Every structure is written in C-alpha cells, then in structure tokens.
Sequence to fold (330 residues):
Amino acid sequence: MEGLKRVFSGIQPSGKLTIGNYFGALQNWVALQNGHECIYSVVDLHAITQRHEPASLRRQILEVYAQLIACGIDAEKHTLYIQSHVPQHAELCWILGCYTMYGELSRMTQFKDKSAVHPENINSGLFTYPVLQAADILLFCADLVPVGQDQKQHLELSRDVAVRFNGIYGDVFTLPEPYIPKLGAKIMSLTEPDKKMSKSASNPGSFVLLLDSPDDIMRKFKRAVTDSEPEVRFSEHKPGVSNLLSIFSAASGRSIPELEESFAGRGYGEFKPAVAEAVIERLRPIREKTEDLLKNRDYLEDLYRKNAVRASAVAARTLAKVQKKIGFVR
Fold:
C-alpha cells in the first residue's frame, strides 16, 4: 500500500470485547482501513503481566481475533496478527529498554493504578510494558496511532524513545503521531453510569459483551440504572438515561434528539427494551460470524499464520536496521 500512511494499534485479549470497545474504538479501526495501511494486533504479550489461566488466555486470544474479523477488520487486505507470533517485538523491546530511563517509566500512571489493584504481583513486566508498547509502534514505523486519553502518555514515551535513539544513530524510527479519531460513543457502565464500561467490572450486569446472547442483553438493559424521573432526556443530571441514549444512538444510527422526540411521553418500561433490541440487532451479525469463525479453526489458523508472516517481514526489516546501527554482528 505504497503512499498510504501506516496505522498501528493493538488490543489485549485479557477479557471479552464489550460494546464500549466496539462503539468507542473498533468502529474507527474499521473506518481507518479506507485510505490507510492498517496493522492491527492482538497483543497477548501485554496480557501476561497479571496472573492468568493458560487455557483461558488461549481461548480469549482466538475469540478476540475472530471478533475483530467479525467487526469488519479485513485480514486479507490489511494485517491482523497475534503479537507473540512476531518475535521481533520482544527483541526490540529489550533494545529500547536500554534507551528508556527509569524516571520515565516510574511516572507512568497505569503502572501505579495496576500496582494498586494487584499489590501481590508488582512484577517487572508491569513496570516495563510501556517499552513493549513503544516497540510495538516503532517496529512497524507507524505514522499514526489511534489513542484514547488513557494511552496518550504511552505514545509520548514512544516518541521520546524514538527521538533519543534517532539522535544517537540517525534517522532510524518514524516518529508516530497520535490519531484522534472521530469521537466514538463514550459508553458507560449500565449499573454505575458515572464509570466507563469495563469488562473487568465485578458486576457482569454492568457491561454488554459482543458475544452476549439476546436474552442476556435484554436482561442487562432492563436492569440498567436510570432515575426516578420517568423522562427520556439527555442531561448531565440523568447519567443513566443519557448513557442509554448514547448506546441507542450508536446502535441504531439515529440521533439523540430524534430518539428523545420518539420516546417523549413514554416511560422507561418501553425505552429500555427498545435500546436492548437495537443493540441485539447490531451485534447479531458480529456474534454469528464470530461463532462461524471459531468453528472453522483451520481457516482461522491459516489466516493468523499468513498475517504473522506478513507482519514479521515488516518487523524484521526494522529490527535489522536497529541491530546494524547499534553494532550487532549480522
């Protein structure tokens, strides 16, 4: 795809994908395929900083890979690979770690947050994984990296490390720019609408997964938090209803004012099932295609193998250049 700017992004397989992932990020991944060269990864190396069950991780990696295809990622035209299948990630991570300062890593807010959540397992991988993120991006000479607010700090570190390395050895790495995509819907928890929807929440009723059954989706929305004022209206004073309106709009393609007008004078008893139905229909083809892909393991394996070869070819060129610059013997 000569002449097109290259986009890189990755997603962890540390849990199942939610409608927050889909409406907030994955729709933009799909849209970026038009007019860009896209390289997307299931970043399983990042998923092992916390204790995990091997069989569960293996299943989640395949499920997330299949879901990304079902959401619209074209793994024939673009590159969609599993991170651990490209060993250059780990090799470049070690090299870049020697050009990343302790003070820079100690300022990473996510390290502090995750250490607080898992005080019994503050391992060195948790501390240095921003270096692996830098290697992910720089390995593919990415021009653009889609970022949310919580990832800006890591992209800035990637740029700082690239500038430092280039300053010593010349023009080696492309300096990645943040890509601020068209604002996706900000999806909040169904039970705590002041918090972002998260698959790690202890209450499974707070999030909707892409692979949830229609019955589960309907039940979760019927139990979603609203308020005592039975008016379907978007307002900062009505976070639960506003969240449901955002979800309804994202799932149906209808504007929030249009939905407010449509449900004027109608209570939550009608509104919440309508939101659920819109989500059910939006997710139905994704769930069905994912299930088909997971049943056809030979096809899925062939696809991720071909994509690993494609990704490795790009990564190997960058790593060879880096190795030559720092004085390794070819």
Notes: Residues 108 and 119 are 16 Å apart (CA to CA). The chain has twelve helices and five strands.
